[in-house]
Amino acid sequence: MTREEIFTTLSGYLVEMFEVPAERITLDAKLFEELDLDSIDAVDLVVRLQDLTGKKIKPEQFKTVRTVADVVDRVHDLLTE
Amino acid sequence: MRHRLDRIWRALGTGLFLAAIGIGGSLLALTVFPLIALVTRDRCLRQKRIQAVLHRSLRLYCRAIHALRIADIDMTGTEQLKLLRGAMLIANHPSLLDVVMIMAAVPNVQCIVKGGLWRNPFFRLTVEGAGYIRNDQDPEALLRTCIETLKAGNNLIVFPEGTRTVRGQPIVLHRGFANIAIHAEVDLQLIRINCEPPILHKGNPWWKVPSTRSKFKMEVGDHLDIHNFLGYRYRSLSARKLVEFIEGYYTESHGHGCIGTGAETADRLGSQSGGYVS
């Protein structure tokens, strides 16, 4: 998957799972402050991303995630590992 | 003159009763709680006994406030709350006395308490002794602790506004309470508290008492079956719908002073269920 594809898929998840308005999803958007996710949402998102990548995601890999771009990077790293 | 004296009395009394919470709680934590711990090996039973002591003490406390004419406290019609087991108690939060009134009305309650109180010499012993849940732990651990206590039959008090209500401002709720309810799959008992004229509200020092005696009224609101909110594809969506519903509930009850008749709620739930994704 390219970064663009990951972004598109992730945007879909954010809209579907957390009712984030699509127009607010940009690479710079902050998940917790701007897109109104909470820490329990983050856990659900990680589970979903595990299904997508087929890889186990360690919680510490996502502890530092702040923006949409951070998530795209992590997923990209996982897929190219 | 009489009016002025009455006001001074209420200001003094308010301070006295605030102090009584800190000092009384600490005294209980130093004497009664250790005694209970000594004779009660079972952790669960020990907690129940401590809860019972707090419940009775706070009942007495509320009666004293009322009897000494520091404020009127009206909790008529809240007796049914005593029957609750393993439910979340959700309330608006006009004053510092809210949690006291709820604990006086419901025997087996747990609450989530600001972590800062564990460093506050006035409250440290009480919150520690009563085994309340700290809010400054890892969110997932907090969620697990809350689910455990609910499953054990305790009722969990949460003020979803996160802090005391500020008058005239729109009601915005944190989502934490909804995450707990959705994950634990427990019902929610809504409670409405009204305090007129306001006292011990946010941003107002305790000694600034209003010119007439405040009247607290605690009312039992709707009992929400959590299953009405579980039909969504994701728990994250269920939690959001629940927050929306309760935000609407308290916004309306603030606007009209009183709301939440069964018919209105059924209406609202009915119109919502059309949007369920299962």
TrEMBL record, chain A:
Protein's UniProt keywords contain Transcription: no
The organism's place on the tree of life at top rank: Bacteria
Main localization category: cytoplasm
Gene3D superfamilies: ACP-like
Post-translational modification O-(pantetheine 4'-phosphoryl)serine, affected residues: 39
Compartment(s) of residence: Cytoplasm
GO molecular function: acyl carrier activity
Maturation and modification: 4'-phosphopantetheine is transferred from CoA to a specific serine of apo-ACP by AcpS. This modification is essential for activity because fatty acids are bound in thioester linkage to the sulfhydryl of the prosthetic group.
Entry keyword set: Cytoplasm, Fatty acid biosynthesis, Fatty acid metabolism, Lipid biosynthesis, Lipid metabolism, Phosphopantetheine, Phosphoprotein
Chain ranges of the Carrier domain: 4-79
Pfam families the record matches: PP-binding
Cellular component GO terms held in the UniProt record: cytoplasm
Pathway assignment: Lipid metabolism; fatty acid biosynthesis
Functional summary from the UniProt entry: Carrier of the growing fatty acid chain in fatty acid biosynthesis.
Family of this protein: Belongs to the acyl carrier protein (ACP) family.
Name of this chain's protein: Acyl carrier protein
Gene name linked to the record: acpP
